[in-house]
Amino acid sequence: MKLYIKNMVCHRCVLAVETILNTLNLSYKTITLGEIEFQNPLQDADRVKLSEQLQLIGFELIDDKKHQLIERIKNHIVQFIHHDKELLKTNLSDFLASELGYEYNYLSNLFSEVEGTTIEKYVILQKIEKVKELIVYDELSLKEIANQLGYSSVAYLSNQFKKVTGLTPSHFKSIGQQKRVPLDHL
């Protein structure tokens, strides 16, 4: 049995959910971004307790099939951009179709219908947040950041960054951390 959770975007989110499950003595098989797989079905009372605890830390159980799929799309995009450099070398539409078992056109249309934006725009927002993170870390040049995130040039990255944030990457670097947005708010 699987439960789907909204707003899980990082490894710390997985650890937070794991802590809740252990506190509630709920045995589970696996926890990944946006999903908990249980050995056995949950009792209704346990599901309610879990839901309450998740809400306290900003997560939410998702029951609707469409919204579950949207959350899975988002989690795979976050994984694609933020957690696995090798994935960025693959085609996103092929990756999503393969991972989720649906044709990309269906996923794209559903995402636009439910979220009111396109997958492409969501990807751009995620990439810009990753650029912000890398700029703040100050370990890579803008050229290295552009290469890592699959931009064709520093100029293209800079133009997209300015379009989304209203700032140039160098101006952002000067004002730093205060302009970053939590991933679950994108």
TrEMBL record:
The keyword Transcription regulation belongs to this UniProt entry's keyword annotation: yes
InterPro entries recorded: Homeodomain-like_sf (IPR009057), HTH_AraC (IPR018060), HTH_AraC-typ_CS (IPR018062)
Molecular functions (GO terms): DNA-binding transcription factor activity; sequence-specific DNA binding
PROSITE patterns on file: HTH_ARAC_FAMILY_1 (PS00041), HTH_ARAC_FAMILY_2 (PS01124)
Entry keyword annotation includes Transcription regulation: yes
Keyword tags: DNA-binding, Transcription, Transcription regulation
HTH araC/xylS-type domain residues: 75-175
PANTHER family in the cross-refs: ARAC-FAMILY TRANSCRIPTIONAL REGULATOR, HTH-TYPE TRANSCRIPTIONAL REGULATOR EXSA
Protein name: AraC-type DNA-binding protein
Organism (species): Flavobacterium saliperosum
